[in-house]
Amino acid sequence: MSPVAIQLPRNLFRYVFVVSWRHQIGLVSLTVITFLLEIVPLEIQRRVVNNLVKERPFQLVVILCAAYAGAVLVQGATKLGLNIYRSWVGENAKRDLRRHIIAYLRIARAVAPGAEARGVGAAMIVAEVEPIGNFIGSSISEPLLQGGILLSVFAYIVHLDRWMAAAALAIFVPQLIFVPLMQGAINRRAGARVWVLRQLGISTVGRQAASAEQDRSDVKRIDRVLQLDMGILKLKFSMNFLMNICSHLQVVAALLIGGWMVHTDQLMLGGVVAFISAVGRLNDPWGDLVNYFRDLNVSQVRFGLVAERVNDLQASSAPGIRGAQEVGALA
């Protein structure tokens, strides 16, 4: 059955809702289960250490270790299912986009002048479907998963000791300031890079003959891409450096405050071990959230360009499209 041409929404998340809202509900359910399981190994780890310190029967330690292995296995299996499921959603979104583009190309070649040039231009759109589809599969579950892990782990840290949690939060707060600022600068450069590369591709594909002026314009675009790439890399590496420093400072704070509390019998050793392990688990989801918003910006720009191209193609071919539909050309 031939795909039918319809207007694509200009907003990426509207398209996500249209093509996958039922599956997004399933992904959200799996995501909630996954991040709630995140704190179970931490609590079991704390109890194992405390039982060793208290010299309780070793059989209890064996039982706790078996429970730890079981919890990790369940959590890993849930993550595996989540990753496979959202990859499937992303692949289906790619298929849907490709079908729509093929429908537009078929109509344009049949009813519109200059169809060959349009077909060549649309080939670039097909190439951009890949990263867009990859993002769609995790567009809702990824921020929910990483944000849920952050909140659940931090709630567990507060449960362990509010003073150590306050120290960790005080060191984490600067990241809430410099990360959005630096990420915003990266996003602006990434969006500009996509646009410049699109203009370079259009210039290259649409070239009919040698042109010194066009050559100079293309060289400027290539130089601009290099400039944007280096700006993105410098900002990204600088941000990662600052985030790693903050993460290590949190561990130092945990060792100092936790060590003092153990020394004064206000906290057991297992609590400090669990706290340090929990602090270590804050860094990965925070970094993944940063990467998500970076991908979100680029994907929105890419999808906006694809939707604009496809919808403009449909609008310019509207009379022919209606005629083709009337004679069954889309069947």
Task: Report on the architecture of this protein.
With 331 residues, this protein is mainly α. The protein has a single domain, classed as ABC transporter transmembrane region fold (Up-down Bundle), CATH 1.20.1560. 87% of the residues lie in helices and 0% in strands. The chain has nine helices and no strands. It has helices at 12-36, 40-53, 58-111, 115-137, 141-160, 162-205, 212-263, 269-316, 318-326. The longest helix has 54 residues, at 58-111.
Query: How much helix, percentage-wise, in residues?
Result: over 70%
Note the gap between the termini: 7 Å
Strand content: under 5%
Q: What's the tally of helices?
A: 9
CATH architecture: Up-down Bundle
SS class: mainly alpha
CATH superfamily: ABC transporter type 1, transmembrane domain
Topology of this protein?
Blueprint: H1 12-36, H2 40-53, H3 58-111, H4 115-137, H5 141-160, H6 162-205, H7 212-263, H8 269-316, H9 318-326
Write a brief structural summary.
The chain is mostly helical and 331 residues long.
Structural features:
single chain; 331 residues; mainly alpha; ABC transporter transmembrane region fold; 9 helices; 87% helix; 0% strand; elongated; disordered C terminus
